[in-house]
Amino acid sequence: MKRQREQCRQIRLPTLVALFIIVTATASAQDAGPKASSYAPVDSKETFVTIMTRMKTAKPALKKDHADLLEERYDLSKRPAYDVTMSCGKKLQEGVRVKLPPGITWEELAHLAPAEIREKNLFPSGFFPLPFPNHPEGGMLFPKFLIDEINKQEGRDLTRFDLDYDLPDHFLPEFPPPIYLTTRSDRGDVSQGSLVTIMNYYELFNGILNPKQLEGLRMLVTPFPQQQFNQTDDRRSEKPGRGVACFDCHANGHTNAATHLVGDIRPQEFRHRIDTPTLRGVNIQRLFGSQRALKSVEDFTEFEQRGAYFDGDPVIATKKGVNILERASQVNFMAEFQEILDFPPAPKLGIDGLLDESLATSAELRGQRLFFGKAKCAGCHYPPYYTDNSMHNLKTERFFKPRMINGMMASADGPIKTFPLRGIKDSPPYLHDGRLLTLEDTVEFFNMILQTRLNEQEKKDLVAFMRAL
Q: pTM for the full model?
């Protein structure tokens, strides 16, 4: 009996010690605060009025902080190019708008090694990833001109009570943009200068599209519930709404530079801002989605409403009323229309995508030689559409130390899709998050990243060539 009691004590002692360790660890974890979750909260603990009041109160300070950041980074003044416009006449903004760190020139910066730029903290602030106007919040955000036109045509209000769009209109694509079709190049701009919506699509396109394409277009301009615009009490519009349409961001199958955060990165501070890409020429592209994991426009179309509309969270999507598209008809019809969206005319290009020497200026021809030579652009952007349909990691983190910028962790961009450069002058701002406001900014960015060491004249010539694409 004595031996049995001793054995019990030997067994219980390690068990009690282990139990103490577990309880202590659990208490420590609880003291450390709630663990980060991949999911958005489903059951709201605040009333809608409380949410709206709180966010409206916070809005002025958030807006000022972001405006101060933009002013620190960029020259935001209107400075249009005198000799070039977008396809329907809107003036292009010209010149380098990213501000340099004090005491250095662009030429000097381009001659420094990445490690030296990093150690001396010389990476220009406008080259860092661009935060969302309120990065911890995120969500779809539209320029005011789009909001006003949708409200005028449909009575549907895409105003957010918590945030306003941030970039000045003169740096954005023309609105409404023209629509060019591969099937009817003889018609020119088939939108007739209108923003295509559910109110006018039939009148504009009946007799030009086949029945499947027409039905696909109808779906593209039909609003469906989305994270910020729906009927629930955790929306970001004052009144319950029908939602958003694909063409609210991809206006007329192009872009209005509406912005969002990628849905496939967590935690929130690591999510990248998205500048809405154009759908022009989507038929020649083979990678889709913010991380380019989707391999067809059909996959992308279906994923957008199932996942991207709700920040990549299928749980919250169910609550807010996700629209499940039917693949065999709806998705394919929508894709059929997107597949015939064409690039804008480029009268100086031949069928091989290269300049016709009898039409091009000397600056454009010099720029073309640089594009395929010293500037290294054609390593990713080769003709006729100026894309390799691939992903490339620029490893910009070589040039700076990670830091938090207005709620966004600037650490690494990761692999970036090679977007087509055809019609590039119609699609400002540039790079995947819109951090580069002009083509001149883009040339300076890649001149440093690729260490090509172009001189001032070469940079101007390269811009002249890209404007002709």
A: 0.91
